[in-house]
Amino acid sequence: MYLCVYNSLGYYPYLYRFVGPPVRLLAKSKFGRFFVDNTLLAFYHMIHVLKSPYPTTWQGSRSFFYDYIITPTAHFLSKSVVLDWASAEGLALVDYSPKVGNSHAFVFEKT
User: Fold this and answer.
1) Strand order in 2-6's β-sheet?
2) Which residues are CB-contacts of 6 (< 8 A; sequence separation ≥ 6)?
3) Pairing between strand 2-6 and 103-110?
4) What is the largest CA-CA distance in the chain?
5) CA nearest 40: which of 62, 16, 11?
6) Does the pTM of the predicted model rise above 0.85?
7) What is the pLDDT of residue 87?
């Protein structure tokens, strides 16, 4: 089984927990969504274009922004929490990648 979850380490949990709530609240209204799309999302897109080694589209930036900030619920799990869960389910760790964007990835097999 391949499992990729948001990592509890790094900047993203703080961004989601502290910047996210007012942005999510703002995005609930038509005017707020217009404001978010034309200021915060536009800024995010500009940064994404400058940082990404790959071609970046507005829709791609919008998808990432909405996934990272607007999504109503996100959970950030440490490696130990995932390994404890896997062990309780009879899964053995086969491979681990500590950095896949804002996530970490696990490959398990049933024991």
Assistant:
1) 2-6, 103-110, 91-100
2) 12, 13, 74, 75, 76, 77, 102, 103
3) antiparallel
4) 53
5) 62
6) no
7) 96
Q: Which two tokens stand for residue 41?
A: 């999302």
pLDDT band of residue 52 (cuts 50, 70, 90) is confident
Contact between 17 and 88 (Cβ < 8 Å): no
Sign of CA dihedral 86, 87, 88, 89: positive
DSSP string across 58-110: HHHHHHHHIIIII-S----B-HHHHHHHHHHTTEEEEEEEEEETTEEEEEEEE
Residue 104: alpha-carbon gap to chain centroid: 11
